[in-house]
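Q: Give me a backbone?
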Amino acid sequence: MDFTFTEEQQAAVEAAKAVFADVAPDSVPSPALTPGAVAQDFDRPLWAKLASSDLLGLVLAEEHGGAGLDAIALCLVLREAAGVLARVPLLEHCATAMAVQAHGGPELTAALLPGAGDGTLVLTAAAHGRSGHDPAELAVTARRDSDGDGWTLEGVQTAVPWAQSADWIAVPAHTGGGEAVLALVPRVTEGLTLAEQSSTSGERLAELTLDGVRVPASHLIEAPGAWERLRQLLATGTCALALGLGERVLAMTSRYTAQREQFGFPVATFQAVAVQAADRYIDLRAMEVTLWQAAWRLDAATGGAGGPLPSSGDVAVAKIWASEGVRRVVQTAQHLHGGFGADTDYPLHRYHAWAKQLELQLGPAAAHEEALGDLLAAHSLA
């Protein structure tokens, strides 16, 4: 079997490296020194560079001005973005665009996808429910209007990334009959309000309240599995961010321990240091292989290919490794840096804050292990 990336996927990586080459992780105030959000908006100049490099339309079909690539290509670009702590809604934007492209009607795709591809429209998704622990689709109810021409949304979604800067927000909801639907709501809509929140990494979030928000039927996606696929895309993309961040942190630690001397020798030559670094390298390789398995399954499922378990099983495995792995990597990095890792003039503390936020977004590994156990119990592997 050939596990190498395609030429198109490798070209996307090279384009991403060029765009992110000059991005400074410490370009905004430190989250350790700033109450609330570190900035009121995402990095608009970087967003413009991503658009001019055709990376915002990476996963869109050619008919919508995109490159027609897949979830693996998106994860490759996200991996590069995380290495420099790129402050852009790349994951939420691209994943939402993929959901609209796959399941949206002609009116919705025409309204959103051209602007999403060239960056003039910014998309985000509400994926954390009311508390961050309950299923997001249960936090909002969708009721069909009596005239049948629209839907009314009621509920609350917390920690919506970049909601104040987005033009459209994808909101999962339930109809009361067990079905999950996905509504695309303009940020400026009657009945929709945003309350300020901020992440552990200092980025701006919002609590989204929907009080009788009316959505035209053409802006609501009823296709079975549309929200579940978007949820899995967001989770897999978050695993890619955790991998990219972890790889950069381990590289920083390697450089530091090679230069830092104790008793006349670089501390990297001490067995205790080398063993800890080797363990974290193993974590990263496990995070990587489970990430590509999950991303491949998402793409394969779209093409009709199946497996002994649903793709949610592969995503759960990737989340287990990413959630635990990114935490272990940054903790070991802090330990091997000594007190220097907490210095706010050195970027490691920013990576630690971002890693903690990613860990919170992914959720505890034990919950994913339980979900994986339920899948194994429900599906025969024979």
Observations:
- The radius of gyration is 21 Å.
